[in-house]
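re the bet — no i am not wrong, look at it urself. input seq straight from the record:
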Amino acid sequence: MSVQFAQSSSSISWQLTQDNSPFTQTYQGPDSAGNNFAWTTGGSNVTAVLAKQYTIAASGSQTVDLLAQDNLLNLEDVFTRVYGIEVIPAGSDCVISPAADSPLIWFFGSPDDTVTVKAGGMFLLANTDGNEDSVSPGASKLTLTNPSTTAILTVKLIIIGGI
C-alpha cells in the first residue's frame, strides 16, 4: 500500500472578554495559532501509516512494536523512521511511555519519561521532513497504559513513518 498523502493540522482559537461595568465589555480576539503542513511521501520519506484502536482494561497496558505492525490491508509494516504521532484516549487517561524492552525514546528525554493524555483530549507531535527519528531493533516500542483501576481505556493511535 502506498501513502498518497500525509498531513498534520493543529489549531487553538480563543477570545477574551473583560467586564467594564457600567460600560460595554471589552473584547480581544477572536485569535488563533496553528500549523498545517504536508509530509513528502514515497522514497525515503513518509511511506507508512499505523492507524489502530486499542481497548485496554483497567490498570492494563498495550505495547506497540513498530518493527511488527499490520497495516490497514493486514500486511506487516516494519517501520524504520517515525515523523508523527497522535494519541486520542476515551474512557480513561492514557500514559504514553517508551517500553521497558527495546524502548523508542523518540520525543522523550529518557526511557523513564512519560506523557499523560487526559480522557477526551489528544496528544499530537509532528516532525517535518528531515527531522524523523529512527526505529531499530533496540528502539522500536512504545507502551500505552491505562492508569485507572476501574475504567476501560479506548485509545486511537496514529503514527506517520517510513518503512
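see?? The domain at 47-162 is CATH 2.60.120.10 (Jelly Rolls). told u. also Residues 15 and 29 are 5 Å apart (CA to CA). so pay up
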